[in-house]
Amino acid sequence: MPLLDRVIARTLPLVPKSIVRRVANRYIAGETVDEALRLVADLNAKGFRATLDVLGEHIHKLDQAHRAIEEYLHVLEEIARRKADSTISVKLTQLGLKLDADACLEMTRRLVRRAGELNNFVRIDMEDSTCTTDTLRIYRELRRDFSNVGVVVQAYLRRTLADVCALKDLRPNYRLCKGVYVEPLEISYHDMRVINRNYVTLLENLLRSGSYVGIATHDELMVWEAMRIIRELKLPSTAYEFQMLLGVQEQLRDIIHAGGHNVRVYIPFGRDWYAYSVRRLRENPRLAGYVFRAMFK
Length: 297
Ligand SMILES: Cc1cc2nc3c(=O)[nH]c(=O)nc-3n(C[C@H](O)[C@H](O)[C@H](O)COP(=O)(O)OP(=O)(O)OC[C@H]3O[C@@H](n4cnc5c(N)ncnc54)[C@H](O)[C@@H]3O)c2cc1C
Fold this sequence. Notes:
Blueprint: H1 3-11, H2 17-24, H3 33-45, E1 49-54, H4 62-81, E2 86-90, H5 101-117, E3 122-124, H6 132-143, E4 149-154, H7 160-166, E5 174-177, H8 192-208, E6 213-216, H9 220-232, E7 240-245, H10 250-258, E8 263-269, H11 273-283, H12 285-295
Parallel strand pairs: 1-2, 1-8, 2-3, 3-4, 4-5, 5-6, 6-7, 7-8
The protein binds flavin-adenine dinucleotide.
């Protein structure tokens, strides 16, 4: 990990909140549902899809999970009312995974049911490796009753190929990403070349087995590999989509879209934006480096 990235990440809490806000503005849609949905409308008008993430994953009481569910239900209602083209993305720890996994399942079930009634879709984000097994178990449980729910897998985890084989019977709707948390070498690949090769292997495997894949990356090489696989398999544009984070590699995003591929933009928003920004940047100094460099571009 380059020294500069580590230094930036460590000194971040000393940076005034107003400056963090200025940087975060590019990556976060604001604090309210209204701000987030105005941004969704802008992106929809340019032909992009969206997925909304209400910030705030680390909770200490189930009450907070109930509040998060209410917020997400409100987001679903507003998406429907405004006829926006947006799904929602949820983190199970925000819905109580670490406090009571059964309660978390029931709350997520409520969300997925309501999303289904509104003709919408819930993507379950993947968090750090302490959550992987429970997240995949809850995903399998939900698929007994619902099809409008998808999950995320991470190419940096050594277990992922086995996980997707185990889920094959469900033909899941996946988001495939490299993975953003810092994980130990025993369970994750650290060499970016290996992560990239595993990403391509997984992508080809998932697309060949008929899964819909949200190809989540800003890496031009991964985009190129994805385009190659899509061409070789002669896939229609309804079989996959590209996904990118708000504010990241927007030029690449436009190029992909102009090539006739669907692109979904992941839009985080909410009152927890400051804690979220600092936590993310401290957790993964590489991100701090990206943001720092982006500031001066
Ligand atoms: C839509 C979406 C959803 C995601 N969901 C999850 C999830 O559920 N779980 C999970 O673990 N990870 C998730 N991720 C994060 C993903 O794992 C990270 O983006 C990963 O660390 C970066 O991978 P990359 O493919 O962009 O390649 P990299 O090689 O890391 O990045 C390629 C280039 O993109 C730029 N870049 C990448 N990330 C950023 C950034 N944050 N800010 C500024 N520039 C950046 C840099 O210029 C970099 O050189 C998601 C990513 C996307 C796009």
